[in-house]
Amino acid sequence: MKRFILGIFYLLLTLSCVLQAQKLEPKEVTVLVNKYKNDIRGPYKDIRWFCTDGSIRPPKDPCPDNIGTGVQHARYKDEVVALGKSNHIFLGQILAYTDMESLWDVENDHSRLKQYQLDKYLRSVDNGWINQKGQFYRGAIQSEDEQAWGIEFYKWLLAKDEILRNEYFLVRQSLKDIPHNGDDNVAQKMRSESKVISDLYLPFMDLRTKIHSQPEESDIQKVIKFKKTHSSKLPADIALKIDALVTTMKEFHKPVDIFALAQMAPLTKGTPLGNSISGFAASSSELNSPKLLVEQASQLLYDIREGLLEEERPMARLQLLDVSLKLEEIVFKSSPEYQPQNLKDLLHKICYLGMAVTGSGYLEQWEWNQLAPGLTNYDVPEQSLGELTEVLNRARAAVEWSAAMTKANYDAIVKQYVAFEPLAAGFIDDKIRGSVSLHLGQSVGELGNMISMESQLANKVMDVQNQSTIRGLNPGYAFGELVVVGGSSDDIEVSSDKIYVFQRPPSDLKPVAGIATVAEGNMVSHVQLLARNLGIPNAALSDENLQALKKYDGTRVFYAVSNKGNVIIKPENQMSQEELALFAIKERREERIEVPVGQIRLDENNVLNMRSVDADDSGKLCGPKAANLGQLKKMFPDKVVEGLVIPFGIFRTHMDQPMPDQEGSYWQFLTNMFQEANRMLDSGITENEVENYQLRQLEILRAAIKKMELLDSFVDQLENGFKEVLGGDLGNVPVFLRSDTNMEDLKEFTGAGLNLTIFNSVDKAKILEGIKDVWASPYTERSFKWRQKYLLNPENVYPSILVIPSVDVDYSGVLITKGISSGTDKDLTVAFSRGAGGAVDGQAAEQYLIKDSGGYTLLAPARERFYNVLPVTGGIEKKSATFQERVLKERNIKEIRDLARTIRERVPKETNSDYEGAFDVELGFKDDKLWLFQIRPFVENKKALGSTYLESITPKIDLEKRISLSKKL
């Protein structure tokens, strides 16, 4: 009885500890990590026997025979267990100690599995990482038990068709790390050992770069020679590490035993795939050239992926996937030896490496089907320069999409770990460099260099290698300090006179002089539209390019993107007189735009039915969002939701109320601030000081607006509007509150995404608070800085609010009635993401060029692991996505094409407008029904597009020029 009561006490104590577990800050986790590095037991507290009956016994008291064989391994320290519960961070995971479903961790986007992989990487680059001393803790982990667990795990996992179909990439990647067949990841070990040496001894950096970017067997002699040359300077421990690296390199470069492949998949004997593997193995003596080996291995790699689901036995699937890994190794090792002699061979190599990348899971099969027609037509005598340029674009896309697959799967967990362990930042790069994508990228680079020479469309970006992977997105030019941001951009404070190179730009980017990004997001995100509108040069580049530019961080540079997309970045001392003249001091005010306020109506103090407004009311009663959506409601009544409009007049009426703790009204406070700013400028105070003063005052105003009492008459009108127009009580209908100012969609300024949208709000109090938040949003630092930089009268900004019911769309995005990438007015550009709010905030969206001549080109697949859903209870929930199916279906693309045709024909007529430009349309699909949410003019920077200088750096290209595919490289 006493023992029972004691057990209950400990159970309650444990539950209490779990409930009280507080999430640790990253710096606290760092302390734990450093503590374990110096602990002889690492993250473990002791070793125990775990018996099949659930009992746990001391190490010297094994499980008795009558119970059955148990397993022996370490137990985690209590604080390690607590960290898993509080932060979902699992250190030093022992597989034999882990439930299979817990490791697969569906609810957390497979976080535990990814952490296991990341842990293995960190151990390889940091001498055991948290097990630096604990790796010698004998008996903590039993390799044979881990192997047995791994086999059982894959029997369980691979029995599920849906998992193989949806998560092929992740499943296959996990096989490289979870023990199940006795193999080690020798390639990763080689890269890790070379990294450790270069970190400790800088002169080894060039060899490390070679081993990481283009590993060849000849590197072994180079390393041996390096050790000999540096023998007098090398510390003994580094010399030993070099010896270990040489051993690993010899193991890595040892030829794969092709004949043994058939023995790896005995269960598949007699099946179509089994026969293919046996045939490939039997012909090993005939595969006497790297070209044949790459071709045949890539084809089989692709065939295994395509036919894997036809094999229903989990163990047979496991054997096929292991063969697949060996085939990727064959392609990886053979690719550097396959040296194309002419253009035809190079196109052949790119095609088959694309198949290998798809077979390895870095591209989805439907994505390869979109690319393949452009990459398989190499068996002809010649092609035009235009045709070859399109091949380059398709091949470059394969490289970018494959790298994005790795980032999409692992980026979130890497970000979490980088916060407490900076070494985790190298994990994604290591994954990419260990894949066949590496060699595909190098071959595409060779093609790009050749086409650049033929077209004279060469980039000139400092002295970085492989410049063919750099491509301009928006034309423009800039001069300023270069800032290279290698990691997260979330906490970067940007400056309007600097040029930024990002892994991925922040969605709330403040004004900058120029940007270049590895993950461009999509061409129609708010950041991209602002850059295009304002003539800010913007380019996409590879991660390798970004790393190469890091040494120029802090350098003052000239940056230009031409109308055809070639890019120049050069140091200040190399600028020509013409380039210097572009930045001669001039009156900036002449370049600014004035917000028209002559026709604004502030006398309208009623909440309006959206049906009562149309395009003619834009800038008068309300902003263009509400006015244009009201117009669309008239044109497409079944494709547009009902809506309410809170006009400018209601905002101004509230702003004319006395402002607490100030003399005068809210509006007088704002007016006085601008008057004082002008007085300060006239008295010689610097623009920075004046801007800081304005931002401080706006912070006061913003806080006051958020606390403002709403007028009873306004709230009553709002409640009536919800009942009469939206069909339910205020507090029961989920709605979007969209800021809609008179500064948006001007002829020369888009203002896209600068102000607040409240997503899917239901609660009455939250909606009323949200209205004040939206009113306050034009006075945020970001919105103010963009306006201040480009508008002559930023004080005359009035927000209205569009209130529309939420539509929980399956996917949503943006249509531009112009081909942005093609530059053709008759084409269409479309970007869509899963869920609500798609494509506008810089997501890696699915993008298409829909051609006027018929057909379309996939510009990029979606690469976002999470998307927004809108529950009826309000707020936003995140769901995880997989990429094995496209977002837009064929019928959706046809409907978008028809919609664009109707918009082009009807909108100018029905609005009596002389506008002849393209339109920017936000839309979504719910159960294949199209919904329209916004239409606005698509504003481009005519100055940048027509700049004499930009035209001068844009080569005239003869796209009809014929090039023989027998051309020597």
Automatic annotation (TrEMBL):
Residues annotated as signal peptide: 1-21
Keywords assigned: ATP-binding, Kinase, Magnesium, Metal-binding, Nucleotide-binding, Signal, Transferase
Name of the top EC class for this enzyme: transferase
Pathway(s) where this gene product acts: Carbohydrate biosynthesis; gluconeogenesis
UniProt-listed InterPro entries: ATP_grasp_subdomain_1, PEP_synth, PPDK_AMP/ATP-bd
Protein name from the UniProt record: Phosphoenolpyruvate synthase
Function in brief: Catalyzes the phosphorylation of pyruvate to phosphoenolpyruvate.
Keyword DNA repair appears in the UniProt entry: no
Record carries keyword ATP-binding: yes
